[in-house]
Amino acid sequence: MGLTLNAVYNNYLTTYSQKGQTRYDTHKKSELRSVYNSIVKLNRDAPWYLPTTSKATQQYAVAVKENARGLRNTLAQLGGMEENVLFNKKSSYSSDENVVTASYIGSQDQEVPDLELEVHSLAGSQENLGLFLPDTKVDLPSDTYSFDVGINDLNYEFQFTVGETETNRDVQERLVRLINNSGIGIKADIAESDGRTSLRLTSDSTGLGSGKSQLFTVSDNKSSKRTGTVDYFGLDYVSREASNARFSINGEERSSTSNHFTIGKIFDVHLKGITQEGDSVRIGLKTDVESLADNVSHLVGGYNDFVNTAASYMSTQSKSGQLVNEMRGIVSLYSSDLEAIGINLREDGTLNLNRDLLHQAVLESDDITETFGSLKNLSGSLMRKSNQVALNPMDYVQKTVVAYKNPGHNFVSPYNSSAYSGMLFNSYC
């Protein structure tokens, strides 16, 4: 059951949550209580619908919710949760984003010095490369075999059968599917050389913590089924050891188990390459004008991603067009004011940003709050809309009504709008 649940969560994260998690995805008890109360209120008079069974429709409903969450997080990161700091967020720069990218995570009134980074090596993952075997009949007796993978202080046992007529590649490909579907933090694939194939295992994690020599181990010494496959396929051979990132900040040597880390609660840094000897990458804060332009650009990008995702389902989901039209209608209320600062509404409902006009509007403005008042109002409207869509994505799914509730004599069905939650587990249970 543990591996099944891992597969569910892995499928969910890789299919619907490409943008990753933010601090706005964590909630207090009071916030969760508020969401529950909103669902109860929403469903008090909602009619009963037939269950949605189409897999395409189920994926669409979850995608709508996740993209609404993504838009909400984009707005929240720009200060949309606090009216007085909306669009005041500072932006960071990197002199070479091919080597280092950085985002500012400090407070708005904090003094931030520029930093010089030299990257000597990147954090690397562990790789186990098995023996290269010919595509001939597997030289193992037909039976059920097993081996253990130890990772993050946990052991996972993998069981599989070897048939009489199977080849080495047949078994290797089965193990690739078995390991990749388990979601334990190891990627498996087939390596080829001179007509021979090898099973390659690579850890998702990088670097080695104190006292560790490997990120994962492979053994069948204590397996419950027949042993011998680890030696036969060479699964325990470490072809590349995990390594830590080595870099310096203003001349001070540092190391990290990951290429993604924070510096002094000021910058969130991602190492992507190595600097040439004697060279360095400077990171710091952009000017207020550039920061504001970046914030507006992020808002436009987040909005466009949401609209484009909804529009991509219009050929198969009839009500996705309703969502696109509603978003277009919200923006159209502010379109004349937005055009004055370089933001134009396209026919397809997306936005176009002219950064030159935006810069000009900022430089010529006597009162930034007044100049960007319409943009703040738009942000608030989009925040409310994203919350509504995330609360009930089933509102944008074509459904068949079974019965309307008797007004004044109904009972609450608090999870009716959350039917999508059960969709995550379809085909796994």
Describe the overall structure.
The chain is of the alpha+beta class and 429 residues long. Helices cover 36% and strands 22% of the residues. The chain has helices spanning 2-16, 29-43, 55-77, 168-182, 229-233, 288-311, 320-332, 335-339, 355-364, 368-371, 373-391, 419-423, and strands at 48-49, 92-94, 100-104, 115-121, 127-129, 133-134, 143-151, 154-162, 186-193, 196-203, 216-219, 238-240, 245-249, 252-256, 260-263, 267-271, 281-285, 343-345, 351-353, 401-403. Strands 2-17-4-13-14 form a five-stranded antiparallel beta sheet, with no helix packed on it. Strands 5, 6, 9, 10 and 12 form a five-stranded antiparallel beta sheet that branches. Strands 3-16-15 form a three-stranded antiparallel beta sheet, with no helix packed on it.
The profile of the biggest β sheet is: 5 strands, antiparallel
| Helix run count | 12
Shape: globular
Q: Can you list the strand order of the major beta sheet? A: 2-17-4-13-14
Radius of gyration: 27 Å
Mean pLDDT score, rounded? 84
Brief summary:
The chain is an alpha+beta fold and 429 residues long. 36% of the residues lie in helices and 22% in strands. Helix 3 (55-77) runs antiparallel to helix 11 (373-391) and helix 6 packs across helix 9.
Keyword list:
single chain, 429 residues, five-stranded antiparallel β-sheet, 20 strands, disordered N terminus
Q: Helices and strands in order, then pairings?
A:
Elements: H1 2-16, H2 29-43, E1 48-49, H3 55-77, E2 92-94, E3 100-104, E4 115-121, E5 127-129, E6 133-134, E7 143-151, E8 154-162, H4 168-182, E9 186-193, E10 196-203, E11 216-219, H5 229-233, E12 238-240, E13 245-249, E14 252-256, E15 260-263, E16 267-271, E17 281-285, H6 288-311, H7 320-332, H8 335-339, E18 343-345, E19 351-353, H9 355-364, H10 368-371, H11 373-391, E20 401-403, H12 419-423
Antiparallel strand pairs: 1-20, 2-17, 3-16, 4-13, 4-17, 5-10, 5-12, 6-10, 7-8, 7-11, 9-10, 13-14, 15-16, 18-19
